[in-house]
């Protein structure tokens, strides 16, 4: 057991009562109490209590012992709505079957970091969730001790039943909940030993599972309120353009249309949050009664666009410097490629240098140099961007899918001038996030539109609006060089990485620390295409590139690719180069060794091509081995074996699900997906031409293994996604005899690769 | 605008809408049946899949004028208590991540099993080709369909 300070003050306790009792929580209905039991089949129905008692901001207990736990963080499919309450329930010592989970609204008085991003919910929530559960447990024990006129030390708890040692007296949580809610919050509480966990480490079903499979309202797009109108935006057709004028008269008289106007979401003098990234500030808006009517009016609306002069100026500087002739400010994918190739061939800003890499390259007997690229990507959450807003004179009520509610609240505060306490943001379950909903411009747009209309509205993006709205994954480019001496030893390593508009470089990650002479350089090229975080930002390209290069390097050096990596990691562990290395070589090696064993590496059959990859990002380690073959020009993925070190696994089956999903997603994006531009215009606006991975293209089998080490847990939303791209590239090489350097790989595969055979 | 009679989940309803309005938006905006999802609007993602006289169709491409006077089943009407073998299999395998596409996946899967109670892996993959899962739960979807097929046969 370990003692921790509770840090839960009286203020947050009192504050919590008002929000939890208000009945404002989305998704709360009686179905919340029905859910499948452990085998997922039988439906369990919990009877709701007559009265609830707030113990602290994280939970309340009913007079019948039913417990409601508020899940603080946004749910984007990473399953925190189940796993975070599991952690609270563990320390509370309650029967999981007695728990009802509700999504907490934004409440910075009680919760910290209500954000879905960086795979940090579990890692950063670990202690506060445990403390909240343990604090409540202690208050219940104190209340029970008072009632029994016993010492707290003589009480034990099992599944919400308090027993008195030395007598057969028992009290259930429901019986002491009222008294517990009056107990002073203890300053210090004890947390359980890991060995005593009963819920953490056991697989529990998704708390929203039943609602999902029966089609109950859960998502932002499912919000319908009395008097609510539908709003849609019309945005410029190309990056580098802006609104000029429109003729709205004909459209205004179309059936169901209530109003047509423009908004300026982010006026120039507004102080923006980092999360206010938006492709376009000035938008045409159509408001009407039904979605279909507004969609028709949107199509009929005659808007004139013009070049944005500020952006033209910016692009002139950019393109002249590279000897290009486009000066319109409208960007093209082929020019991007030329610019990146030219810039990437120059020396760039040195971010890290160990030893004397330049000298080693000069005297090398062989230099291996390879360049890797990837395109812009759209997030394509299956639920398009949307938000409900009801802005009245004195209050802004906002409800919908947002990964950054705390920042969005500040944006609304600055844009509308409302005090923070007059802004109420509630989160729905999200139909995917992937980083796209970190950027809450759609929430601000909804608030501005609602204020202008003086009515509740739901802003809805069409798929086309969503896909052409930017905030894309940047395009990246990296060149790796390795110097080998006459004995084929690696003597120097050089990475020069850049992109539009940011570099994907992590200078202190592996193989930094494992090579005596190491050089890392970074560059970037400006753009007017808006970009943002996309699942495992930067890692989502550089991992695959690096792991492909190491694979090729191992082959050139005549080494087994896994042993080659393990040897380097051994060096980094025993005699690290430099001091800033931001990975743990032993844990890194651990997943490689595990995946080697579990996949029977080295014993594969001849008709299966295998590729290996391993990466560390977002505090977790993942190694993957991908087995495939190529049938004509069609890749067939037979199996992926994954070894993962994320410390303690809170909810094992759900964690496997995340690893499987990240693996499929990584294969899909590296193989099939790209966003291209012509004269600033996105060349794909829907799933007919933008390729996402589909059923037959997914691996036939995915095996997931976790390292058991009892270390405090880290996240899984992102870590399985980047490395699989390298495993895929390396397996493609084995299958075809050709190395793949440019994503999406399907382009090169279709352009006439002969299958090795 | 015109009036249409339509049978949804066994219940006859009257809807006043433009004849071209896709069934998807009639369900969502007019009838408060939001289980059927909007994903692409061009029949490429499968999130809006419903049963039209027993066949899986994309409701975003089905005008109310065509849907009228036919039998429509949505995810809400697939079973009375959410205990259709496919729904149960979905829960058993804990398939969903974000969950947004799953109603469409389930509707396609149930139509498949009706026609082909014991599909091969390849038949499952091909039948499910039109349903995108952006989170990548494809292996679990396939496993759930196989479990449902088994349970329906036993």
TrEMBL record, chain A:
It holds the Pfam family MoCoBD_2. The chain crosses the membrane at residues 12-32. The keyword Cell division does not apply. InterPro entries: Ald_Oxase/Xan_DH_a/b (IPR000674), Ald_Oxase/Xan_DH_a/b_sf (IPR036856), AldOxase/xan_DH_MoCoBD1 (IPR008274), AldOxase/xan_DH_MoCoBD2 (IPR046867), AldOxase/xan_DH_Mopterin-bd_sf (IPR037165), N-heterocyclic_Hydroxylase (IPR052516), OxRdtase_Mopterin-bd_su_IorB (IPR012368). Residues 214-309 form the Aldehyde oxidase/xanthine dehydrogenase a/b hammerhead domain. Keywords: Membrane, Transmembrane, Transmembrane helix. Gene3D superfamilies: Aldehyde oxidase/xanthine dehydrogenase, a/b hammerhead (3.90.1170.50), Aldehyde oxidase/xanthine dehydrogenase, molybdopterin binding domain (3.30.365.10). This is Molybdopterin-dependent oxidoreductase. It comes from Mangrovivirga halotolerans.
TrEMBL record, chain B:
Residues 2-78 form the 2Fe-2S ferredoxin-type domain. InterPro entries: 2Fe-2S-bd, 2Fe-2S-bd_dom_sf, 2Fe-2S_ferredoxin-like_sf, 2Fe-2S_ferredoxin-type, 2Fe2S_fd_BS, Beta-grasp_dom_sf, Diverse_Oxidoreductases. PROSITE patterns: 2FE2S_FER_1 (PS00197), 2FE2S_FER_2 (PS51085). Keywords: 2Fe-2S, Iron, Iron-sulfur, Metal-binding, Oxidoreductase. It holds the Pfam family Fer2. This is (2Fe-2S)-binding protein. The lineage of its organism: Bacteria, Pseudomonadati, Bacteroidota, Cytophagia, Cytophagales.
């Amino acid at each position: 057991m370990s003692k921790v300070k509770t840090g839960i003050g009286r203020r947050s306790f009192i504050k919590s009562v008002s929000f939890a009792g208000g009945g404002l929580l989305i998704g709360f209905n009686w179905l919340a109490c029905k859910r499948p039991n452990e085998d997922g089949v039988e439906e369990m129905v919990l009877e709701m209590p007559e009265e609830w008692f707030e113990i602290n901001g994280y939970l309340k207990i009913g007079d019948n012992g039913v417990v409601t736990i508020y899940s603080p963080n946004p749910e984007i499919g990473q399953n925190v709505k189940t796993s975070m309450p599991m952690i609270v329930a563990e320390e509370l010592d309650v029967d999981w079957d007695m728990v009802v989970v509700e999504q907490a609204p934004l409440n910075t008085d009680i919760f910290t970091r209500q954000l879905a991003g960086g795979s940090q919910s579990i890692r950063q929530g670990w202690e506060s969730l445990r403390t909240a559960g343990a604090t409540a447990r202690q208050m219940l024990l104190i209340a029970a001790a008072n009632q029994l006129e016993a010492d707290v030390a003589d009480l034990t708890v099992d599944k919400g039943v308090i027993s008195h040692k030395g007598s057969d007296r028992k009290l259930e949580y429901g019986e002491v909940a009222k008294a517990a809610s009056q107990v002073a919050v203890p300053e210090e509480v004890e947390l359980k030993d890991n060995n005593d966990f009963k819920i953490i480490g056991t697989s529990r079903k998704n708390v929203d599972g039943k609602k999902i499979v029966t089609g109950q309202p859960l998502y932002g797009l499912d919000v319908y309120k009395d008097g609510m109108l539908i709003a849609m935006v019309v945005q410029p057709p190309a990056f580098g353009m802006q609104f000029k004028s429109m003729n709205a008269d004909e459209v205004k008289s179309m059936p169901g249309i209530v109003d047509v106007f423009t908004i300026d979401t982010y006026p120039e003098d507004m102080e923006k949050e980092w999360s206010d990234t938006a492709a376009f500030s000035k938008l045409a808006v159509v408001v009407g009664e039904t979605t279909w009517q507004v969609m028709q009016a949107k199509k009929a609306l005659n808007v004139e666009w013009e070049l944005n002069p500020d952006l033209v100026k910016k692009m002139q500087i950019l393109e002249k410097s590279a000897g290009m002739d486009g000066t319109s400010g409208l960007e093209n994918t082929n020019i991007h490629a030329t610019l990146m190739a030219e810039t990437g061939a120059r020396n760039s800003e040195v971010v890290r240098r160990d030893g004397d890499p330049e000298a080693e390259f000069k005297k090398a007997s062989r230099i291996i140099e390879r360049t890797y690229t990837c395109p812009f990507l759209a997030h394509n959450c299956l639920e398009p961007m949307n938000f409900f807003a009801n802005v009245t004179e004195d209050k802004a009520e906002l409800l919908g899918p947002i990964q950054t509610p705390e920042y969005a609240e500040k944006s609304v505060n600055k844009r509308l001038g409302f005090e923070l306490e007059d802004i109420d943001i509630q989160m729905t379950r999200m139909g995917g996030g992937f980083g796209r909903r970190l950027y809450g411009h759609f929430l601000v747009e909804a608030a501005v539109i609602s204020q202008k209309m003086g009515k509740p509205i739901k802003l809805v993006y069409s798929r086309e609006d969503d896909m052409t709205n930017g905030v894309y994954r940047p395009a990246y480019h990296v060149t790796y060089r390795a110097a080998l001496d006459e004995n084929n030893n690696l003597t120097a390593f050089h990475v020069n990485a850049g992109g539009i508009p940011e570099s994907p470089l992590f200078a202190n990650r592996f193989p930094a620390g494992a090579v005596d002479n190491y050089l890392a350089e970074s560059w970037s090229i400006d753009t007017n295409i808006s970009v943002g975080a996309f699942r495992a930002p930067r890692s989502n390209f550089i991992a695959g590139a690096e792991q492909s290069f190491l694979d090729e390097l191992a082959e050139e050096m005549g080494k087994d690719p896994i042993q080659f990596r393990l040897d380097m990691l051994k060096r980094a562990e025993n005699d690290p180069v430099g001091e800033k290395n931001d990975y743990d070589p032993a844990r890194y090696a651990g997943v490689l060794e595990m995946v080697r064993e579990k996949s029977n590496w080295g014993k594969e059959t001849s008709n299966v091509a295998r590729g290996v990859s391993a990466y560390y990002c977002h505090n977790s380690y993942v190694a993957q081995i991908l087995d495939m073959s190529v049938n004509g020009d069609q890749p067939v993925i037979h199996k992926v074996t994954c070894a993962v070190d994320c410390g303690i696994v809170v909810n094992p089956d759900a964690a496997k699900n995340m690893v499987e999903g990240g693996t499929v997603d990584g294969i899909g994006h590296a193989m099939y997906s790209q966003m291209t531009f012509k004269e600033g215009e996105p060349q794909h606006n829907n799933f007919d031409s933008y390729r996402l991975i589909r059923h037959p293209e997914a691996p036939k089998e995915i095996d997931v293994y976790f390292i058991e080490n009892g270390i405090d847990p880290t996240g899984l939303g992102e870590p399985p996604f980047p490395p699989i791209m390298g495993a895929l590239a390396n397996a493609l090489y084995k299958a075809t005899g050709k190395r793949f350097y440019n994503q999406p790989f399907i382009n090169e595969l279709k352009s006439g690769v002969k299958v090795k055979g | 605008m015109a009036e249409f009679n339509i049978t949804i989940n066994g219940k006859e309803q009257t809807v006043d809408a433009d004849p071209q309005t896709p069934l998807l938006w009639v369900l969502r905006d007019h009838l408060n049946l939001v289980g059927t999802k909007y994903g692409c609007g061009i029949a490429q993602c499968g999130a809006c899949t419903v049963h039209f006289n027993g066949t899986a169709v994309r409701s975003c491409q089905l005008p109310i004028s065509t849907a009228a006077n036919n039998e429509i089943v949505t995810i809400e009407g697939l079973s009375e208590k959410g205990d259709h073998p496919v729904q149960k299999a979905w829960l058993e395998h804990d398939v969903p991540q974000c969950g947004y596409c799953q109603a469409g996946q389930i509707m396609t899967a149930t139509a498949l099993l009706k026609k082909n109670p014991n599909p091969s892996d390849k038949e499952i993959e091909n039948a499910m080709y039109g349903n995108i899962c952006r989170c990548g739960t494809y292996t679990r979807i396939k496993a759930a369909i196989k479990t449902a097929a088994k349970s329906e046969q036993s």
